[in-house]
Amino acid sequence: MYEGAVQELIDELGRLPGVGPKSAQRIAFHILESDPEDMSRLASAITTVKEKVKFCQVCGNVTEQETCNICRDPRRDPTMICVVEESKDVIAVERTRSFRGRYHVLGGAINPIAGIGPDQLRIRELLSRLSDEKIEEIIIATDPNLEGEATATYLVRMLKTLGINVTRLASGLPVGGDLEYADEITLGRAFEGRRSLT
Amino acid sequence: MYEGAVQELIDELGRLPGVGPKSAQRIAFHILESDPEDMSRLASAITTVKEKVKFCQVCGNVTEQETCNICRDPRRDPTMICVVEESKDVIAVERTRSFRGRYHVLGGAINPIAGIGPDQLRIRELLSRLSDEKIEEIIIATDPNLEGEATATYLVRMLKTLGINVTRLASGLPVGGDLEYADEITLGRAFEGRRSLT
Description:
homodimer, about 200 residues, alpha/beta, Helicase, Ruva Protein, domain 3, Dna Topoisomerase Vi A Subunit, Chain: A, domain 2, 2 domains, two-stranded antiparallel ribbon, 8 helices, about 45% helix, globular
């Protein structure tokens, strides 16, 4: 409907995740009406990220060097690996300040419908780390949904023969939540995982 | 939380309208994982739109030339002007195929709280069109909300001394809607604007 460049921009924006046709139009007009300098900063942020950002050769996290900040940090415990699906999950765990080991980013979870099996994930890289590094515990922190649980089960089955301590993040009631509104699976898990207070 | 370029991209994306911190992160990772060519197309679409797209010197609509497609089109009725708030509204009216005249884009609506008065809108440009062109009817198609109504009232008061036929789009029940769910103002307007069928 629009003339050339505006329509092209709307089309490109509409391909981004979570951006429908209406938002794409709204963002396109925001870009049109914004300060040219701000918008060239946005355009160059996109280009720069594609040029500079790579994936850590050790853990698969995003980085601008060969290995990421966390893998390079000598203060991190090298005997523990927290296995997550995505780089975003690394940030989520880091925010808790509960974990001082290193990570392994799988790049997704097992999802047969989407055609993602173990070979599409960075599981081979995890195994080679286990033979190279002295790992004592692997914490599986994949998402607590169908795909994440399937991936956790697959990893446990593969790792338990190696004599490494494999753990999984606790499932249970979210802090600040209402017991009444918890779904039955979560509440069931909270019962199974109940802890002694005495 | 992220290293340099990724965080910069998330920050820039987070400034776009309707993009919160979580969506900005999601879009940034989508960009990271996408084909570099697709993403350089997105970046250049942003740059191109800022370089090429201007506002029509006659009506204020977006265009890549001095005047827009519609103002240049000799088949459009030059005696009718449809006054809208934004370029997006031009597209919305065009989609109806109900109007074959030309447009005037105000660039917003009167909104004292946001500091937008008549001087911030392209009302002076509209008045100069009325003295230059032979206009017979002005259709006011500002949004049917507080700001749009205020703008319509202001325009009507200013234009009625000039002897031009000024009309406003009908308010009433949206087609395909339920009478039961119509708000009382809309239903009231539908009564006021009822039409004889005999």
